[in-house]
Amino acid sequence: MLAVSLPKNDSYGSIRNCYSICTVSGYDDNAKVGGICGSSSYEIENCYSVSNGGVCSANSATIGNCYYLSDSETDDIDGTTAKTAEQFKNGEVCYLLNGGKSDETVAFYQTIGEDDYPVLDSTHKVVYADTDCDGSALNYTNGSDVSQSDHDWDDNGFCKNYPTHYQKPEEVNGVYQIANAGQLYWFAAYVNTYDYDNATFRT
């Protein structure tokens, strides 16, 4: 589905999983124009615009997970985010539009290296992401064989990149061998979630 600018005074409804790659214009210099809508009360979600005017000029309803082509933020509308041409081309925007999913529920597809923008056409490929140790995306691919980076633990059992990630202690004969503070934090979170009452602490 290709979404183009809606009439200025359209209101009430929702727009989801749409995009605009056209040029939009208004009847005069004061007209409100945008790739997905001009001015409306539509709820807008999971949409992108590479058109002039961004996603929309004004909207009184909720906008979420929407993106527009720009090297910097050029609007003050909550729920819209500027992305560069490279971020559109490398699969990042496609992955974000799908809510970070790469399963059978996705709406957007993109064959990286061929498509400059995401499309609503399942004959194109699903976008996957290799992730950092906290789950954030590092790079994007059309291959399902993706990886997650290992944590880089310091001597106290805390991840050097994300200190709120704790090292899991070694388990010997069903007993966790807690050797540092990070492992103790990990175990505390574990026993608060599961029923486990056997551990030894060594220094």
Give a short overview.
Helices cover 12% and strands 24% of the residues. The protein has 203 residues and is α/β, with parallel strands linked by helices.
Order of helices and strands: EEEEEEEEEHHEEEEHE
Question: Which parts are unreliable, with pLDDT below 50 for 5 consecutive residues or more?
Answer: 1-8
Structural class comes to alpha/beta
Spatial sequence of strands, sheet with the most strands: 2-5-8-9
Total helical segments: 3
Gyration radius over CA = 23 Å
Q: Give the termini separation.
A: 62 Å
Shape: elongated
Helix content: 10-25%
Query: What amount of the residues lies in strands?
Result: 15-25%
Major sheet characteristics = 4 strands, parallel
Q: What value does the average pLDDT take?
A: 80
Structure summary, number of beta strands? 14
Features:
single chain, 203 residues, alpha/beta, four-stranded parallel beta sheet, three-stranded parallel beta sheet, elongated, disordered N terminus
Kindly describe this structure.
The termini are far apart. A hairpin with a 5-residue loop joins strand 10 (about 130) and strand 11. The chain has three helices and 14 strands. Residues about 1-10 have low confidence and may be disordered. It has a four-stranded parallel beta sheet with strand order 2-5-8-9. The protein has about 200 residues and is of the alpha/beta class. The longest helix has 13 residues, at about 180-195.
